[in-house]
Amino acid sequence: GQNIDQPTEMTATEGAIVQINCTYQTSGFNGLFWYQQHAGEAPTFLSYNVLDGLEEKGRFSSFLSRSKGYSYLLLKELQMKDSASYLCAPPSGGYNKLIFGAGTRLAVHP
Amino acid sequence: DSGVTQTPKHLITATGQRVTLRCSPRSGDLSVYWYQQSLDQGLQFLIQYYNGEERAKGNILERFSAQQFPDLHSELNLSSLELGDSALYFCASSVALLVGDNEQFFGPGTRLTVL
What we know:
The complex is a heterodimer of chains A (110) and B (115).
Chain A: E1 3-5, E2 9-13, E3 18-25, E4 32-37, E5 44-49, E6 53-57, E7 60-65, E8 70-75, E9 84-89, E10 91-92, E11 97-98, E12 104-109
Parallel strand pairs in A: 2-12
Antiparallel strand pairs in A: 1-3, 3-8, 4-5, 4-9, 6-7, 7-8, 9-12, 10-11
Chain B: E1 5-7, E2 10-13, E3 19-24, E4 31-38, E5 42-50, E6 53-57, E7 64-68, E8 74-78, E9 87-94, E10 105-106, E11 110-114
Parallel strand pairs in B: 2-11
Antiparallel strand pairs in B: 1-3, 3-8, 4-5, 4-9, 5-6, 7-8, 9-10, 9-11
């Protein structure tokens, strides 16, 4: 089975740093995805981690610890346009499908 | 623009009716995925096709069915519609069969409203 846990909502200030955590239990592991979704729009790919450690991509970084079933997304130098939902998705079920967490709704304030 | 197209953008229909949602994947992508996103439930995986064959299933209702055609476009058929089927339906595509290191590109979605 697969249980994915993310905070429901977070708020942060423009220019700050925010960390969005994701914990999961999965029976079939093959890496973890993060997607960003603005309200009413399609999700867009942010990152994929298959090995433990931190992957940095511009203002966004993603960390994975497979032994702890834990990942986080780190957003630096926050901008107003970063206000969105952030979805954590470990692959599951024979690696053919993504199971998304409920997502974390981030609100960035001036 | 992800390169994935979905039609129609909006669909309003009545309970008991049947609708068909259409998806064209990115050029070169063989996998197509369908997701449902309701206000209270987040993004739910429905079904995956790869090169015309069904390869993975999520919590898809028996009233729902899908297929992928030889030109790789896909259709999701929803029948005997209920109020609770009102949702955003997303199609996504990717190059490969397996999810690992295989980014999915999402279409803009079809917003279905059942009255």
